[in-house]
Amino acid sequence: MSNESVHGPPDATAMAVTFAKTIGRIADFAVDLAEQLHKDLGLEYKPAPHGKKTKKSVRDPNMPKKPKTAFFLYCDTEREKAKERGENPPSAKDMAETWKNADDNVRAQYSNEQAKLKEQYDKDMSAYNAGKHHSQSGSPPPKRESPDTSSGSEDEEENAQ
């Protein structure tokens, strides 16, 4: 038996260490370069904490969703038609090709539907932004009466009997 380690020839460990050191030097160089670039541009340099991922901003669940495009509306109807026929839905590539070759009447139909959805979205967004602005002004939003609290006099009558 030879004196080689279980993990490979003795050179492999030395190569791995050299490789790790080289990568470290490259990373340090990149950080220095970024700092210099920010300094030259007059910007403040704030590197992300190493090893930590930045948090993705949380989407407000009350915010209206953007409307689908005409193409995606077309894809939805094509998938539904395929389901009704008992076929597998066409691939996105196939639908893109048929959309590209579709006549103007078909495209106009879906574009009109998309325009209606966009108008509704704009209305919903303006209402959402108005409510959001109102809540940021410091005063609480107007309270809505729930069905349980609107008939409070009935509860009082039952308790009196």
Automatic annotation (TrEMBL):
- Cited PROSITE patterns: HMG_BOX_2 (PS50118)
Q: Which SMART domains match?
A: HMG (SM00398)
Q: Which UniProt keywords apply?
A: DNA-binding, Nucleus
State the Gene Ontology terms under molecular function. DNA binding
Provide the residue span(s) of the region labelled Disordered. Answer: 44-161
Q: List the InterPro entries hit by this protein, alphabetically.
A: HMG_box_dom, HMG_box_dom_sf, HMGB
Record-annotated membrane-spanning stretches: none
GO CC aspect terms: nucleus
All residue ranges annotated as the HMG box domain in the record: 64-129
Annotated DNA-binding ranges?
64-129
Where is the sequence biased in composition, kind Basic and acidic residues?
A: 76-87, 94-106, 115-125
Protein name (Swiss-Prot/TrEMBL)? HMG box domain-containing protein
